Amino acid sequence: MGKIVLSVTPETLVPVIPRTAATRLRPDASYVVVGGFGGIGRSICHWLAEHGARHLVVISRSANTAGKLESLQVELHSTGHNVEVTAIGCDISKMTELKNALDEHARARMPPIKGLIHGGMELKDSVLEHMTLTDHNTALAPKVQGSWNLHQYFASPDDLDFYIMLSSLIGVVGFASQCNYSAGGAFQDALARHRAEQGLPGVSLDLGIVKSVGYLAEDEATKTIEALQRHGFTALSDDDVLSAIGSAIDTPFAGALTLGINTGPTTGGHNNNNNNENSALKRDLRFACLEHQ
């Protein structure tokens, strides 16, 4: 039987598989989830509980917070998580409402808020020609003013361990009939970078299509999903989103992170492989050269 001799010198480089550190949250802290009663929001609450959170604060505009709170608590307890969930009904785009609600949380001697995930949104889709000012501002409110109000409330370096906004790829690449939503997402990306530059935690996750949970899944928006896929968006599962949130918590000063896009349309490959005549880039002669790369 032959022998193998290994010779190792100080200059030898040995490839290793790094150990992935599991995200652990503080049981003596509260974590805020804006929009936590939606499909993605509920999944986030479960994920936070699985990773050590014991006190959750769900902020929602909905007037029926009591029924949704009870449902979420039943879900969490049924999976064995001993989590205290508090519901706050307020409009985060109105600073007075938000400040009063969060100040009340502090006066109730609850554990201090150390993490924030902002998943609030409002869609008012329409082509720009027909979009009213009210619809434009309604979609912007939670993304722009809401994000800014949260930023101002948690503006000290020691306030939060993480500040995460669930944004959208729409803010990066645009999409017909969603210029208002696109502007809101672009603002969140800029705000995340601004916070990071100020030494404050800030991450904006530009998500593609989330098919398993959330608005598109719950509203069965098949045509919208198909249109987004034609423009290069790829489908994400809730596990993909939760994994991205874990990464954002572990790298809280990362700024804007993008996931859920097929880069093929920008290089021509996706269009050629799928014979996609409807691609916006393919119809634009300025990008015709990409078809031949």
TrEMBL record:
Short name of one Pfam family: KR
Gene3D superfamilies, A to Z: NAD(P)-binding Rossmann-like Domain
One of the record's GO molecular function terms: fatty acid synthase activity
Domain of life: Eukaryota
Keyword Phosphoprotein: yes
Keyword terms, alphabetized: Oxidoreductase, Phosphopantetheine, Phosphoprotein
Protein name: KR domain-containing protein
GO BP annotation list: fatty acid biosynthetic process; secondary metabolite biosynthetic process
Signal peptide: none
InterPro entries associated with the record: KR_dom, NAD(P)-bd_dom_sf, PKS_KR, PKS_NRPS_Biosynth_Enz
Naturally occurring in which organism (per UniProt): Chaetomidium leptoderma
All copies of domain Ketoreductase, residue ranges: 29-213
